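pls ignore typos typing on phone
zinc ion + seq
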Amino acid sequence: MIRYQFLRFPEGKAKALTFSYDDGCIEDPRLSDMLSAHGLKGTFNLTGNAIRGKNALSKEVVVSKFLDRGHEIAVHGLNHRAEGNIRPIEGIRDVLDCRLELEERYEMIIRGMAYPDSGIRQFTNVPGYETVRHYLSELDIAYARTLGADNDSFDLPTDWLCWMPTCHHDQPKIFEWAEKFLELDVNAQYGSARQPRLFYIWGHAFELRLKDNWDHMERICETFAGRDDVWYATNIEIHDYVEAYRSLRYSADGRRICNPTLLTVWFDVDKTLYSIAPGETIFIDK
Ligand SMILES: [Zn+2]
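k done
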């Protein structure tokens, strides 16, 4: 009898790391250089100012520094307005206008988002989170990153439209939590503690300039870089991979599994690693 099955990231890795940086500021290319130099990947959340304001990142910079390196660009509201503080129709417009403009400019499909400003941390002109959640899903936003509850649980989100990061880069415990994350041998854990783990860091690159702590960011990158058991991915890559895993089809006893998605999906069944290619069906002989 199969006892537990857990997602494993590509190549069977049990852990993943991602970054999320907001506002499309002029310091972003330097951060991109730093992440890429260490083999790390992240998501840059762009606003109207980043697209066409006074300090806008040029199309060439966005393409060469973000897209060509495999980083993601995502929606951050055309006018950077907090969904919890504006009427739904205004929130819909801010998200949709940002999405339309980014997609037209970069000729791609953009489904990721980070909540601007205070996001969904307070509700003054909206009944509550469910209203925002409903319209974001109608706008085909696949995930939206929130903030304000740093923690070291390293869990994958259960609600993509309320994706809580592990911490901001200035979280005082970041290196303590990084050590806990990196030293954890997920596959050696007992029973239900063998779930995959994610470390998710967010911030603004301009904070690194204001605090003059680029060396701190460099140390974060060095700490996490070069680990064989960590998948370095953008936010949308993690979302799409986890959703592919959740789309697997099973026989009633869970032993015959079909992968109807376009991604090769990896998982662990009672300490045996399996992968299923797109369109493939496998039988778990346990
Ligand atoms: Zn912002």
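The pocket of zinc ion is lined by residues 22-23, 76, 80, 116 (CB under 6 Å). The chain has a mean pLDDT of 96. more later
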